[in-house]
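[Discussion] Sanity-checking designs against the backbone

I'm trying to build intuition for which residues belong where. Below is a structure token string of 358 positions. I'd appreciate it if someone posts a full sequence so I can compare it with mine line by line.
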């Protein structure tokens, strides 16, 4: 079937709830959902910075995310809940599990307790599946083996959703590394290359990676809701060979651009986008990144701040290959990537420049 990039008007997105709307991906998702005519409810923590959402007139429900009853009342009458809230740089290891596993289970159970449960679209991560050996590509159905606390906690979220698949329709999307306008995580890479023509690369061998522009991920999330397969009902067990209850990966989609790059090549792509013909790639050999990450993490812990550079992330960066590919994205979701990755990186540079970030 030919892939078309327009989302059908006859979609089940009349009233939707979005968790993590104050975050990078969630902010883009709610804009797209509004464009599609959906009534969007954003769930926020009391501590969330809601200024942007309130200025734009979004319906924000502010409550303690550990309150199961509030989830139940917020999800009542909702067609789809896009669950994006997650801890991506936790201050303490246990926060990964409370934010990514326990919160997902709570939301799933709240949905399951309703007479008309909403569809749950869970934004997981390729980190939940784990890396693959060098030169290989993670395809649907390959056994999972997360290597970081972040990955294991997102995997825990997937299993929590899978356990409820008999009573709640659910689809999981596992993105690679997301970049694009307003992204702060990869901004230092753009900034260091643009300003000082230097790309700092941890280690000598860099892993192959799958990247995705935020607009493409948002479109895949929307399509996963509109026409994605749902997780099969059945017991979910933590079994590496069978990928838990997600045995044949029905209802689980990887989201990554078709072109895989290693971290060094990503630097070349950014340099081209900012207009440099030459730049310096500075390889920092192991164990230096581990030592720096340990120091940054300790300092941040003492100052009660999330660490931007963590041992957990170095664990992921030390894996050989994170490339994923999912042929069902064009086949089932009818989505083709509309721009080559290089052009998406150029669009991101243009946005950073327009907004005065570069
Ligand atoms: N960015 C990537 O490269 C990437 C790659 C793969 C998968 N993902 C997944 O994509 C989703 C969105 O990521 P993102 O980059 O947009 O993350 P982000 O910018 O860090 O935003 C995280 C969001 O989650 C909320 N949140 C954090 N901890 C929470 C908790 N304990 N309880 C309730 N809400 C909490 C935050 O709310 P506050 O405003 O209150 O802090 C914020 O809205 C996540 O599920 C992430 O795992 C991201």
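Best answer:
Here's mine. Compare freely.
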């Amino acid at each position: 079937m030919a892939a078309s990039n327009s989302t059908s008007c006859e979609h089940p997105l009349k009233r939707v709830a979005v968790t993590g709307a104050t975050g990078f991906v969630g902010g883009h998702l709610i804009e797209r959902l509004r464009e599609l005519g959906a009534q969007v409810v954003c769930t926020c923590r009391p501590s969330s910075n809601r200024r942007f959402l309130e200025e734009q007139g979004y319906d924000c429900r502010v409550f303690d995310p550990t309150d199961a009853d509030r989830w139940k009342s917020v999800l009542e009458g909702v067609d789809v809940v896009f669950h994006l809230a997650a801890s991506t740089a936790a201050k303490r290891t246990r926060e990964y599990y409370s934010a990514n596993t326990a919160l997902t289970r709570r939301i799933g159970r709240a949905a399951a307790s309703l007479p008309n449960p909403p569809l749950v679209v869970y934004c997981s991560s390729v980190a939940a599946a784990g890396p693959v050996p060098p030169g290989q590509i993670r395809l649907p159905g390959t056994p999972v083996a997360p290597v970081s606390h972040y990955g294991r906690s997102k995997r825990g979220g997937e299993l929590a959703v899978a356990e409820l698949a008999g009573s709640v329709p659910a689809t999981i999307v596992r993105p690679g590394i997301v970049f694009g306008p307003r992204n702060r995580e990869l901004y230092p890479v753009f900034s260091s290359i643009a300003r000082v023509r230097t790309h700092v690369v941890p280690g000598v061998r860099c892993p192959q990676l799958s990247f995705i522009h935020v607009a493409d991920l948002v479109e895949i999330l929307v399509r996963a809701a509109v026409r994605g397969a749902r997780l099969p009902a059945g017991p979910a067990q933590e079994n590496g060979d069978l990928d838990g209850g997600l045995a044949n990966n029905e209802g689980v989609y990887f989201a990554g651009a078709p072109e895989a790059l290693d971290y060094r090549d990503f630097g070349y792509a950014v340099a081209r986008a900012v207009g440099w013909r030459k730049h310096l790639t500075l390889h920092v050999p192991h164990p230096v990144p581990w030592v720096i990450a340990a120091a940054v993490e300790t300092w941040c812990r003492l100052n009660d701040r999330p660490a931007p550079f963590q041992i957990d992330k170095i664990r992921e960066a030390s894996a050989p290959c994170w490339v994923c590919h999912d042929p069902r994205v064009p086949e089932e979701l009818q989505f083709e990537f509309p721009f080559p990755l290089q052009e998406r990186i150029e669009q991101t540079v243009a946005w950073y420049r327009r907004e005065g970030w570069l």
